[in-house]
Structures are given as structure tokens and as C-alpha cells.
Amino acid sequence: MPDAVEEDDGPSQEWLASYADAMTLLLAFFIMMFAFALIDEEKFSDFKVGVTAAFGLADPVTDNTDSILGSGSGVTPELGPVPLPIDTEISQEVSELKSELEQAGTVTVENALELKTILDYEFDRLGAAELVAVAVDERGVVIRFDGQVLFPPNRVTISDDGFLLLGTAAQVLGSIDNQLEIEGHTDNRPAGAPWPTNWELSSARASRVVRWLIDIGNLPEPKMIAVGRSDTRPRDDNNTPEGRAQNRRVEIVVRITPDNNEALESIATDMATSVDEAVEESIDLDSTFDTGLPDGSP
After folding, report:
1. Higher confidence at residue 199 or residue 59?
2. Full-model pTM
3. Tens digit of each residue's pLDDT (9 = 90 or more) over 189-248
4. How far apart are CA 100 and CA 114, in angstroms?
5. Which of 34, 115, 223, 227 is 20 to 30 A from residue 19's alpha carbon, by CA?
């Protein structure tokens, strides 16, 4: 009897294993690409600053001439250390003031103006003198940020330039123990979606700055307070675009003990008086305006 012929099973099926692996990898690849397309810009910015600092690369706060992200989209892309010769005398003075402030650990009436001098110097180096104002009032030392430079209209995502400004403030405020009150302010125009009113918008912005100062600025949580003021504390007339721009702002208030309120008010008054006198000295009203009255007239 002839030998039985083995039945042909057809082509090998081993290739299916490799094919299935390739399809699985392709699926994973496209899922990853889809995930990258849905990046949260706010979280990505926080992550970028954190990683940069952790790896000891260029300081994202003081070593950039543009916005933090390479193709910065901030409203003031010129922010960055001002490329001008540093006044050695002023730099040395500020360095000494910083040392004194670190040793004191607390801002009081006696050294409130020293903190103002340090902050003014640091913001001037960034070219942000017109966007950030530092003042002393009955509450303490107030850092007042133009609302436009920190947040896009009607949003609570901190801008690239806002990172620079808040980081600069955090570096200075990290050496003091005072309570920090972060206040959000708006103008009197109705807030747009998703905010029902300006109360929600101003509170959300204040809370967002507090989160940034804690998570990225490494300031301790217990000394933070977030306050939404809505449009209840205007600095200017809400009937003009310029006035509304003044009212849209975020303030970091370095609180000084209530017992010193009168002394703080005195400092604030002296500062306002010195500014007024400087303006009067620089303007000769008689030569500037022709009043039509003879010399010596009241």
C-alpha cells in the first residue's frame, strides 16, 4: 500500500502575530497623537516652568528676554531683563536692602519703603514699570498688576508675561512672613460667559494667582488669602476706556499689622505729597497757560 500523502495546511499563519503587533502599535501611536492635540495650555505652562527650574536650566523668571514660551504671545513681549548697563551703586543698595529684609523676616512700617524699593527695582529690570505699580497704603505694601498683562480678556489663564511678573514678585516675597492678600478687581461691565457676574471672574483670578504663587512660586499656603472684589473698589472712572483699564487689575497686598495703620497712612500721604511737589516743580503754570490776566493777578 502506497504511503499516505500528508494533507497541505496552506500558507503559514505566523505572520498574523507580527501584523497584530503592528496594528496595536499604530493604534497606540494615534491615541498618543490625539492626546497631544488636547494639551491644557495652562498646565503645560506650569509644567514647563517647573521642569526648567528642576533641571537647573536658565531661570524662567529672570533669564528670558521674551515671554517664557519660545514664540511668546504675551501682550508685552519686550518683558525681560533690560539690556542696559547696570548702575552698580543702585544694584549694591538693593542687594543690601534684600539682605536686611531677609534678616528681618517681616515687613513693618519701618521697612515698608525698603520692600517697595526692591520691588520697583526688579520690575524696572523687566521693563514692566508701566504695567506694575508698587505703593504703600493703610493696608501695607501693594503690588498692583495691570489686568491685561496677567490675563487675557474674560479668562483666568495666566499669560506668559504674567509668569515673569508673578515669578519676580514671588522671589522677593519668599523671604518675608507677612500675610499676602491677593485681590481680583474688574470694571463695571458685565462679565461674559462662563462667568455669571464679575464676582465669579474676580474671585477666580485671585484664586488662580494664589495657586500659581503656591505651586510655582513656592510660597507657603498659610499666608495666602484670595479675595474677589468685583467692581466695588474702582480706582478710576468706569465711564472711559482708560478708567476701566485702571480698574481691571490684580493686587498683591503685603499686610502689615492693623496697629500700624495710622503710620502707614502717614507714609502714603508723604509719598503722594512728594509726587505732587515734583509735578509742580516741573511745570511752570504761568508759562504753560496764557491766563489773560496781568502779572501778579490772583
Report:
1. 199
2. 0.62
3. 998 889 999 999 999 999 999 999 999 999 999 999 999 999 999 999 999 999 999 999
4. 9
5. 34
**Cα within 13 Å of Cα(69), Cβ side:** 16
Distance between CA atoms of 156 and 178, rounded to whole angstroms? Answer: 26
Residues 253-278: what's their mean pLDDT? 68
The 3-class SS string of the chain reads CCCCCCCCCCCCCCHHHHHHHHHHHHHHHHHHHHHHCCCCHHHHHHHHHHHHHHCCCCCCCCCCCCCCCCCCCCCCCCCCCCCCCCCHHHHHHHHHHHHHHHHHCCCCCCCHHHHHHHHHHHHHHCCCCCCEEEEEECCEEEEEEEHHHHCCCCCCCCCHHHHHHHHHHHHHHCCCCCCEEEEEECCCCCCCCCCCCHHHHHHHHHHHHHHHHHHCCCCCHHHEEEEECCCCCCCCCCCCHHHHHHHCEEEEEEECCHHHHHHHHHHHHHHHHHHHHHHHHHCCHHHHCCCCCCCCCC
CA distance 127 to 79: 6
Beta bridge partners of 140: 137, 255
- Alpha-carbon gap, residue 201 to 230, rounded angstroms: 8
C-alpha span between 65 and 80 (Å, rounded): 4
CATH superfamily assigned to domain 44-280: OmpA-like domain (3.30.1330.60)
The x, y and z cell numbers of residue 58, run together, are 536658565
